[in-house]
Predict the structure.
Amino acid sequence: MTVLVPVLGDQLSHGLASLRAVPRSEAVVLMAEVMEEATYVPHHRQKLVLVFSAMRHFARELAAAGWRVDYRRLDDPSNLGSLSAEVAAAARRHGAARIVATLAGEHRVIAAQRGWQAAARVPVELLDDDRFLVCPDAFAHWARGRKRLRMEEFYRWQRTATGILMDGDQPIGGRWNFDADNRKPLPPGLEPPPAPAFGPDALTQEVMAMVEARFPRNFGRTERFHWPVTRAQALTALDRFVTERLARFGDFQDALSHVHDTLFHSVLSAAINLGLLGPREVIDAAVRAFHARAAPLNAVEGFVRQILGWREYVRGIYFLEGPDYVRRNAFAARRPLPRFYWTGDSGMACLDRAVAQTRELAYAHHIQRLMVLGNFALVAGIDPFEVHEWFLVVYADAYEWVEAPNVIGMSLHADGGLLGSKPYAASGAYLHRMGDHCRHCRYDVAARSGPRACPFNLLY
Ligand code: FAD
Ligand code: DLZ
């Protein structure tokens, strides 16, 4: 009996629920590059290269491990263009008696998966995606009856439930949160070690040529492609982060720099979101460094909170709130997204630096996203849906389940305060305190009015 196992582009984990559920001898794994997924927003070209290259590498690894893999390339003239059409055709082609898949991460794709049974005319079993630490049902249970859904409470619940950084029922170090220690600007002379760049191998170069030819008008450049595309590379990236940058992650977590792209951040989100790394192994690597005295508690707790806390929490919110979450607009903000979010020629050094870096790397760190790009959109009253679409396009780690709560909720407060206790609105003084952009800016951060006044001050 043949079982069709469709594996999506962000399900690149050897331990995926559907791969565990079906014996290798019965399975045909279907992986399909399709225009529907490549165009639901006009993704940054580097993200397209990353997803297709990682998919092709993963397919190779599966085949080497003895799986029968049916891989459908985007440039195959017989490609049907959508996941649903490819699944139905593959079920017929292989005479599949049933289909076993892992639930997608996004409402749109889950709705498509629910139609596969009718399209393929064989039973479809959809398994929970257990690559997260908290499933949507457990989150809904935690949320039930609470007046406010605060990340900090969720995080403490998760620390207690998992025992991570716990000493019995108390947090190691006597505090749950070391945020107050983690707000230092980068001192002059301190050079953050650059995050490793994984140059494109032959397979990635082939994908690059395809993406350049087929998506000539999409935002973003591919020349500086740097992403890990295999689990082995992602493990190297994790190891390099833990040994070279984790110890200072906490101190400079909120810093901004006109010179350094990644500071002490991990640059691991894209690999985690694709499934090349599991969140628990990333947390465990950081906690091991703490116990080995290779990194202090403020760094390790700060890092763990991002993954055990924020990442799981925003996913919980995404599934709890449903598909209309992306349309929330509590402040009735209506201004269109300014062109300079694409061109990077606003004249504001912080914003233009973030856009330029985003174009080159498909990456900006959290404070650039929140306090520069998001903050400007908030204080300028930009339509949240337009901001949401921009963020979904431009980052290599962008998938709606994680991007939308961060943009609509955390950054723009457009959900009316469901996710965040207060809007992250700040004037130029904050940007000046946390980094050196203002020195390179044509605007005056000290001025509150007049033609040279920093626009963040004027709008705040
Ligand atoms: P680090 O600073 O090293 O953090 C470690 C890890 O923690 C990250 O790799 C990520 O997995 C996780 N993490 C940290 N903060 C968050 C958060 N707020 N939500 C979820 N996970 C978090 N993250 C995405 O993965 N995809 C997105 O599309 C995305 N869009 C964002 C949009 C806005 C407006 C904001 C404010 C944040 C967004 N984030 C998004 C969260 C965060 O900015 C990125 O995860 C982070 O910048 C990725 O870089 P890093 O791997 O170096 O993270
Ligand atoms: C992001 C993406 C892209 C660009 N292309 C594909 C694809 O061709 N085939 C595929 O299976 N998955 C792709 N993905 C990832 C999906 O969009 C992702 O599974 C959903 O957004 C759910 O998170």
In short: Residues 265-269, 272-273, 303, 306-307, 310-311, 314, 365-366, 369-370, 374, 391, 395, 397-398, 402-403, 406-407, 410-411 surround flavin-adenine dinucleotide (ligand 1) (CB under 6 Å). The longest helix spans residues 297-321.
